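Q: Joint fold for the lines below.
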Amino acid sequence: MKFLCLACDQPMSFAERRLPGDGTMAAVFGCPRCGHEIAMLTNPMETQLVASLGVKVGGRTVPGQPLELVRGSLAEGRDNAFDDAEPPPTAVRWSDDARARLDNVPSFVRGMVRRIYTDYAREHGIATITPEVMDRARSDLGLEGM
Amino acid sequence: MTMRRIRTYHEVDAPGSAEILDQVLEQRRRLERRLASVRRVVAVASGKGGVGKSALTANLAAALAAHGHRVGALDADLNGPSLAAMLGADHAPLRVDDLGVHPALGAAGVRTISTALLLRDAETPLRWREPDDGGFVWQGALETGTLREFLADVAWGELDYLLVDMPPGTDRLAPPLLVPKLDAAILVPPPSEAARAVVARAVTLARDAGIPVIGLVANMCAFVCEGCGRATSLFPDDGARRLADAAGLPLWAEIPFDPPLAAATDAGSPPPASMAQDSPAGRAILDLAVRLEHEIRPTGGPP
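A: Joint structure:
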């Protein structure tokens, strides 16, 4: 999938992804020459269809986790199906409210989500994971429902 | 009026701005890296359900393991998973670390993955989280993605054989739906008049998929009287052999119905090789394991 700026005849570049939490997605693309931007808006079905392929519009910024698609998509997973190893020691901290929010994530995916947010914070030089960081990571990484 | 020219996808010399293709290719590379440590991948398939395919897979896996091979068993029947239970795989949480998700251990040390190990309980059906106004347009993609992750993200380690218990339906052998490198396919036909067409379709798809070795196994092909030992064929008119001849396939095994063996398998204890020798079905499965070893010897010979 490519987007072409017709005025400049230039392929547009991915700029930003937003997941407002209602199942829809906005992906922003911009022309590197004239700066013109467009937003591709997908409805919940289209968003899910792309997610079902195990890919992220705009690409990945952190590595995929094992069984990421299954764990993120299964409706009724067993609580103790997984024993997730602790992420490698890191300087990244979790604020109390971020940790409380993480505790509300179903345990079927909690360990994986913790690793994803930790990786995201490390890659972006973020010292403390807060709910705001989680929101931003969720959009940046295309983590619908996490 | 002149229509303005817009360059086509292939004329635009830039990576896909949505980066989808690169991710799909990376998925494929991840799968290939994982399977590099798996010597042989064998699909066990049938055109229809109810032919004892999962029980055959469980017993064959246990028999190969009893011969000293390192064996994995992947339950690709996502909606009707029974392989893990038949192998007696425990439901301890699956360890996740940098190597991936570690498979459950079943009978004879067979490494196993199945949706049954992930679902809330044995009665919970496989359901996906969907938007409220959703349908099933992505169900196939999710199932394919799940199987890809089962292959690529499970820390199988070094395996001599990975048996894939396929869901019912001949179409599942079509490439590139599931496994990129199938070394062999075992076809298990139903004992009915419909078998000929079912096998023909499966053979066509398997050959189109480039699967180099294909064998037919007539499972539950006969009932052996416990009193007199006489076998009564359930395939009409010795149909298993005629079926194989018509399809141009070797008949690798004829396995009679065996209630004690079936009960043991249902209980998660496929009988070890020593016990399997005691029944015609057990001996047939052990012979099938030997045949498979002969047909697709692990590279470098058995360990």
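Q: Anything notable?
A: Chain B has a mean pLDDT of 85. Chain B touches chain A through 52 residues (CB under 8 Å).
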